Amino acid sequence: MKLSRCILSAILLPTATVTAFAPNGVVNTQVAKSVTESSTALQADAPIQKPTYGEESRKYRRTVFGHDDWVKHRRPDRFVKNLSTIFDSGVTQGTRFEVSCVAGVATFATLWNGLFYEGLRDFNGVLHDPIVNLNAPLVLPAMPFTVSVSALALLITFRTNNAYQRWFECRQCWGIINTECRNIARMSCSWSVPAKERNREKRIEDMKRVSTGSWIFMRALQRHTGGPDDEAEFQATVRQYLPPDEAEGLIAANHRPFRALFNLSRHIERLPLTERQRIEVDKSCVIIGDICGACERIYGTPIPLVYTRHTSRFLSTWLLFLPFAMWEPFGKAWNHWEMVPASALVALFLFGIDELSIQLEEPFS
């Protein structure tokens, strides 16, 4: 099995390299179909029929701070403001269903034990007998939750730390790409001097092509690691800033970032540079190509699903059964009703941590 996989990888690697720069339809259809079926597609362009609040709100979480933002971030009344907007929070909106389920279980436990074991008190404090006395409440001891909470905390912490690490690595990758694209533009402009090319219009046009090509590479990578909603805007932008043949070739390419990097290298070749200068500029092209691969790795490789699913099952089961262990501690409350908001509050913060890690795990969109 391992040998067959190695042979398949050796066959697909050169084929994928060729098709990355070729428009659709140029490469043999059967070969392109084989590559598509044999590899994991990075662009999941299947439209989502009903986007959730969490997906819709991701576009508003691309926070970039300036001086005024940092001052606002440190203001003394931030705690009051954060508490006053808790129900408007995206985390709260994204976990409404899970929190409602826990609150529903807590309500069920309260009603069940009131109707079939302890009875219910009216607003005057009079205790009414249960409908049917089952002689045993529907409760759980607190010990299993006390024993397991450390393991649950460890799982959630590990997952959250890894999700943040992915977000931080993505931010570093984009920072490197931005810096290297600036270096390409800077070196190209500073080394394209009249002594090497007397035609001023040609120098300006060549430098403009390099600068535009650097930006188009970043835009192509953003589209490559983003969702399908950006496709129309991407095509319009490419057609606006690139020549028609180059724009259509980029749009039709199977791997748009590397096609954009290929075009950028071609534009650099037209510059009047010495061999040493050309090597220096090409070093930056190699770096952004490597970082493109790192972005694809982050985008295409989630935290192991077995870990994510086990953590989610552990957390969901723990919180759904928690109300049964909270019934007795709230015995002094009226009909134990305080356990309902208490359970919901605990579920909100714990499910909120899981929601944060889910949102951070894929940082591109």
Your description of this structure?
This protein is mainly α and 365 residues long. The protein is built from 15 helices and 2 strands. Strands 1-2 form a two-stranded antiparallel ribbon. Helix 1 (2-20) crosses helix 2.
Helical content, roughly? 55-70%
Give the strand content.
under 5%
The average pLDDT is: 82
**Gap from first CA to last CA:** 36 Å
* Major β-sheet profile: 2 strands, antiparallel
Written as H for each helix and E for each strand, in order along the chain, the element string is HHHHHHHEEHHHHHHHH
* Radius of gyration of CA atoms, rounded to a whole number: 29 Å
Instruction: Sum up the overall morphology in one term.
Output: elongated
Give me the secondary-structure topology:
Layout: H1 2-20, H2 29-38, H3 53-57, H4 67-73, H5 78-84, H6 90-94, H7 96-118, E1 120-121, E2 127-128, H8 143-191, H9 200-224, H10 231-241, H11 244-252, H12 256-269, H13 275-300, H14 305-326, H15 339-361
Antiparallel strand pairs: 1-2
Helix pairs in contact: 1-2, 7-14, 7-15, 8-9, 8-13, 8-14, 8-15, 9-10, 9-12, 10-11, 11-12, 12-13, 14-15
Task: Briefly summarize what is shown.
70% of the residues lie in helices and 1% in strands. By secondary structure, the chain is mostly helical.
